[in-house]
Amino acid sequence: GSRVFDPLTSALTNFAEFRYFSIAGGRILNLMKEPEMKGDRPAPNGGDIEFHNVSFAYQDKKVLHHINLTLKQGSLTALVGPSGSGKSTLMKLCARFYDPGEGTVSMGGQDLSTLEPESLMKNISMVFQDVYLFQDTIRNNIRFGKNDATDEEIIEAAKKAQCHEFITKLSKGYDTMIGEGGCTLSGGEKQRLSIARAILKDAPIVLLDEVTASLDPENEVEVQRAINTLIAGRTVIVIAHRLKTIRNADTIVVLDEGRIVEKGRHEDLLNNHGLYAHLWDIQTQIAGWKL
Ligand code: ADP
Ligand code: MG
């Protein structure tokens, strides 16, 4: 389901964007008071993302073990593995939702924990399954990607994200309120709004977690088209429920119980006859696809 929260003050929004996704709304403000997000250096403008011997635990539950991984600037990396294998956690470490318990995550050669959080956030757009919308106008919900955006920029992003058409059909267009007492949007429409927000933000790194998982086929096509516009030429990490959608990734990283068990391109991994090939077999058998 999607969430609608009260608007945050603009001074908080960039920082909030970076921690809110996995959290219930009421806890946002408390979490932002956590002392751990330190760092005062400006973030480099993208670059490779590197994991050096990263381990991570939620309290005492270890979920990632000794991850070594380089995500090349401008490449598309897919994270694959059973539910609970640590895909979302690995992705969240790239955006510094958390700092690793052991090892380092770096961007452009700089340890994320030394970077000023808001500066890092300017580098990263995130689109997750659970779309995060404010109780505000459609225009302001898209503007959240870039506080000083002009109306023209907002409309252009909406067009690229396949939103403009449904927005202009609403009685108040871009000034339509969403959320409590406002209009109701379908799951696919909310997804595309969050993609418009990300397109407007124009960050060099894009994180996509199960974006199309809950959509019907018709919406999935529209959302996929919007995603293709969003990711062109960027460093992308994608978690996709359906392996079919990531078979062209530059690198597929297969996680199992918090460890990288395989890595490579689709064809290589099929030839490995390992976990990826197994997951692929299950999905293609269930779906009855012809390869
Ligand atoms: P995936 O995305 O592959 O399904 P996750 O990274 O979401 O896996 O989760 C990895 C493990 O960490 C799971 O066992 C999950 O239950 C646990 N986990 C995820 N988020 C939290 C959290 N906020 N607090 C405690 N445990 C969590
Ligand atoms: Mg997940």
Account of the protein in words:
With 291 residues, this protein is α/β, with parallel strands linked by helices. Helices cover 34% and strands 23% of the residues. The chain contains 11 helices and 12 strands. The strands form 3 sheets. A 6-stranded mixed beta sheet has the order 7-9-10-4-11-12, with helices on both faces. It has a 4-stranded antiparallel beta sheet with strand order 3-2-5-6, with helices on one face. Strand 11 and strand 12 form a beta hairpin. The longest helix has 15 residues, at 187-201. The protein is globular, with a radius of gyration of 19 Å. It starts with a strand and ends with a helix. The model is unreliable at 1-35 (pLDDT under 50).
Number of helices: 11
Shape: globular
Major sheet: size, sense and barrel closure? 6 strands, mixed
Bound molecules: adenosine-5'-diphosphate, magnesium ion
Strand order of the largest sheet: 7-9-10-4-11-12
| Sheet/helix structural class | alpha/beta
Radius of gyration equals 19 Å
H/E series: EHHEEEHEEHEEHHHHEHEEEHH
Mean pLDDT: 84
Helical content (DSSP H or I, runs of 4+): 25-40%
Question: Gap between N and C termini, in Å?
Answer: 33 Å
Portion of residues in beta strands equals 15-25%
Number of E-state strands: 12
Instruction: Report the uncertain regions.
Output: 1-35
